[in-house]
Structure formats: C-alpha cells, structure tokens
Write a structure and sequence with these properties.
InterPro entries: FAD/NAD-bd_sf. This is Phytoene dehydrogenase-like oxidoreductase. 35% of the residues lie in helices and 16% in strands. The chain contains 17 helices and 16 strands. The strands form four sheets. A seven-stranded mixed sheet has the order 7-6-12-13-14-11-15, sandwiched between helices. A five-stranded parallel sheet has the order 9-2-1-10-16, with helices on both faces. Helix 8 crosses helix 9, helix 8 runs parallel beside helix 13 and helix 11 packs antiparallel against helix 12. It is globular and about 65 Å long. The protein starts with a strand and ends with a helix.
C-alpha cells in the first residue's frame, strides 16, 4: 500500500492528508505542537468561556472551492456563520463605510461613489466562481475562463493607489484601502490591488464567514474526515530531517519554504534549494485578544454589526502606515484589523462579555510592544473602549513565529505579496508543489494559491502527488 507522511497539520497539511487518504493512501500526519490545526486553532486566551481564533478568523475563499465541494466538512460539524456587515471601515466623527453581501446595498451606502463600486465589483462578483476556478490554481496553466480572468487581472495588476482613484469620497476610498491592506504591501507597488479586489469581490459573492465555535471547527472536520479514511494524526513530534521518516512513498511538507529546504537537505536540487532559501517574507503582525464588556462602542453604527472592522483612518493614512512598515519602521498609527467573530457566532461569548481579535501590521520580526497603539487606534473610533477591557492576551511578531514556525517573523500570510511571489510562489515552475525529489512536495500556504484559501494549497499538492503516482504506475513494465 502507498504510504504518505504529512509534516505539519495546518489546514493545508490536513487537506493534503484527506485528499491522499480518500485516494487509498495510508496517511500519517506529524505535528510538532500539542494540538493540530496550525493557523486554524481556537482557544480561551483571555477569560474562561471566551473563544478566540488564534490566527485565521474569516474564510471568504474557503466556502466554495474544489476541496470543500469534494469533501463533506459539514458532516463532521463545520458550520459557517455570516455577520450582517461583512467588513466595515470607521472614519473620524462617526462617518464610515460598510461592505454587505449585496453589491447594490454596499453601493447605495457609498452615495456618489456607488456607481464606481458597482463597476469594479458587480461584474466580478457575478462571475467569481469561474474566476476562482483559475486563480485557485498555479498560474502556469491554460485558463478555463481566459476573458474573465483577464478582466480580473486587469484590476489586480494595478497599484492600489491607482485603482483607488476610481472613488472620490473618503468613505469609498477607505473601504477599499482596508481590503487592500490585507496584502501587507505599499499601495504604490504593482499588484497591490490584487488582494483587495479578490477579498472585496469574495465579500459580495461568498461573504466573510466564520466557523461556528471557532476556526478549530475546520481542523476538527478535517481530522474527522482523515480518520474516516484511515489516516492518523500524531502531535508532539518534531521532524528535523527526512531521514527521520520511514521512507514513505509520499512526503507532504506543510512548512515554510526555508524550513522545507532544511528538512530535505542535500537531496534537494541546487536550483530548488536556492529558490526556497531566497523566498521572501513580508511584514509581521502584533496580535492582542481582548475580553470586552458589552462589545466595542464604535461611533460608526454599521461597525457594531461588522464581522471585520478595518481601523486606520483614511486611505492616505493607511497608505502611509503600510509604506512605513514595509521600510522596517513602526508607524505611530498602524493599520489594525479588528475581528468581531461573535457578531456572527454568539456561541463564542459569555453573557455580555465578548472576545475581540485585533492585530496591527508591524515590520517583520519587530520586537516592540504594539498593545498601546492598537488600543489607541480602536479608542480613536470607539471612545470608551479601554474602559470596557476586562482582560488581554498578547502575541508579538516573534511570539507568533514561536507559536507557529510557518509565520516567519510574524508573517501570517506566509510570504511577501510582491508581483513575482503573488503569481509564482514559492518558485517559477509548472508544478510548484513538487520539490524535484521523488515523492516530496511542499503544501503550505507558501504555495499557490497562497494564504486565505484554506485547504487549497494542500489539495492541489496532493493532486500533484497522485498524478505523479499514476504516471509512474503507467511507466512500469
């Protein structure tokens, strides 16, 4: 029987394991941490009964994918829950903007910029299923929907600062800025619109849902599927070299590229080793989880109903902050993402005490303490917030890496989203998952389609492995 070992149990490692096991492969997953899940873990980080997502909190690109359609995660307990407002952006003096599932409702709230919002996102949202069929795969393929992908690409290739000129009001420009900032790139750089366009369109097509009971529900569902197909997960096992494994037919590495190069060692072809060790990581994040009495008192009313709130002021302010972080300097007013998952999933709360998830963009590996500036940024748009804080849990960029080694320097998107890596991560190759060593594959979020499309990197890598297995069996006499 064909045997596989998966090193790492993040959502991509588990997706790879499930895909292989469903094809009849004997699969064992090895995880260094005490529990599986990687970025999809949930814990009582502040007070008993409050459930905080430890990293991944919202999943717009995981709702309807080839992986989620192939495997019934709902049968193993996964339930998606949507907030009324998918994401919002408060401005000073109580102004702000909100993104709803409906393009029309969002556009109506943007007043004179509504027409331009419809022009950018309306056409894309109606065709996003076909577009994702192409961009959830490696870029070196013949597109199934070339004209639709080209229209998406025309917008995605633009610097965010250029695309933002489509809107004239501070509200609309800020609403786009918050989504674009997820790329952790300067707004003047090429392709810095790509993540904002993808996430903004996904909000209208799929919403920005949370997993009921926390993101760990995704992990539990994948482990349940794996167990059903005969696979196993062993925690507390650190693998430092392929020599420690019992010569499996397939090795899946749900690790960062440089870590993969260390694990494979001298077996790795020199050009692949160079590509993996030169892989670039982007800025980090500094995360604070809060226990808050009665929620955050946002002046902007729609932000009280939003699952995600982007905090940072105007488009120009966020552009300045992202540029500073990219240059290795910590801004006094950084971009802060606030997660209010409990708005969609009240099961995470305890009475009137709610869990709040917040992180600021910081330089990679930054060693300072951003707790004060995060609280000041939230307080700026929600006076009285600090008075409602009952408890805090802090993880710096370095501590995030200690908690999950794939987050090098606190880089939770597992790679700089510059023009080259956004398209050809982790290296330029027709099959970027295969590492040039028979049976050895990289399946982490450092491979296509990247972070945010939970499970698709692992699913794609496993399909590559199964395809090569079939080709080898055909070649045998």
């Amino acid at each position: 029987m064909t045997k596989a070992v998966v090193v790492g149990s993040g959502p991509n490692g588990l997706a790879a394991a499930v895909t292989l096991a469903a094809a009849g492969v004997d699969v064992e997953v090895l995880e260094a941490a005490p529990e599986p899940g990687g970025g999809t873990r949930t814990g009582e980080l502040t007070l008993p009964g409050l459930l905080h997502d430890e990293c991944s909190g919202f999943h717009p690109l995981a709702v309807d994918t080839p992986f989620s359609r192939r495997f019934d995660l709902f049968r193993h307990g996964l339930r998606w829950r949507w907030p009324e407002v998918q994401y919002s952006h408060p401005l000073d003096d109580g102004r702000g903007a909100a993104a709803f599932r409906s393009v029309e409702q969002t556009a109506t709230g943007l007043g004179v910029d509504g027409r331009a919002w419809r022009q950018v996102f309306g056409w894309l949202a109606d065709r996003f299923d076909d577009i994702t069929e192409d961009f959830l795969r490696p870029m070196l393929h013949v597109p199934a929907h070339p004209l639709k992908l080209a229209r998406f690409g025309t917008l995605a290739l633009l610097p965010a600062a250029v695309l933002a000129k489509r809107w004239s009001t501070p509200e609309a420009r800020a609403l786009f800025a918050g989504a674009a900032a997820h790329a952790l790139r300067p707004f003047g750089s090429p392709v810095s619109s790509a993540i904002g366009v993808a996430l903004g369109t996904a909000a209208h097509r799929y919403g920005w849902p949370v997993a009921e009971g926390g993101s760990a529900a995704i992990t539990r569902a994948c482990v349940g599927l794996l167990t059903e197909h005969g696979g196993t997960v062993t925690t507390g096992v650190t693998v430092t070299s392929l020599d420690e494994l019992d010569s499996p037919d397939i090795v899946m590495l749900d690790v960062a590229p440089a870590a993969a190069a260390r694990l494979v060692g001298d077996r790795l072809p020199s050009h692949v080793s160079r590509a993996l060790t030169r892989y670039r990581h982007g800025p980090g994040v500094f995360k604070v989880d809060f226990a808050v009495q009665d929620g955050i008192p946002w002046r902007h009313e729609d932000s009280r109903r939003a699952g995600t709130v982007h905090v940072g002021g105007s488009f120009e302010e966020i552009a300045t902050a992202e540029r500073e972080v990219h240059r290795g300097r910590m801004p006094e007013r950084p971009f802060v993402l606030v997660g209010q998952q409990y708005v969609a999933d009240p099961s995470r709360t305890t009475g009137d005490i709610v869990p709040v998830y917040a992180y600021a963009h910081v330089p990679n590996g930054w060693t300072g303490d951003a707790t004060r500036v995060i609280e000041e940024q939230i307080e700026r748009f929600a006076p009285g917030f600090r008075d409602r804080i009952l408890a805090r849990h802090v993880r710096s960029a370095r501590q995030l890496e200690e908690h999950n080694p794939n987050y090098v320097g606190g880089d939770v998107v597992t790679g700089a989203n510059d023009a080259w890596q956004l398209v050809f991560r982790p290296r330029f190759a027709p099959d970027p998952y295969h590492l040039g060593v028979p049976g050895v594959y990289l399946c982490s979020a450092s491979t296509p389609p990247g972070a945010g499309a939970h499970g698709m990197c692992g699913y794609n890598a496993a399909r590559s492995a199964l395809r090569r297995l079939r080709e080898r069996s055909v070649d045998r006499p």
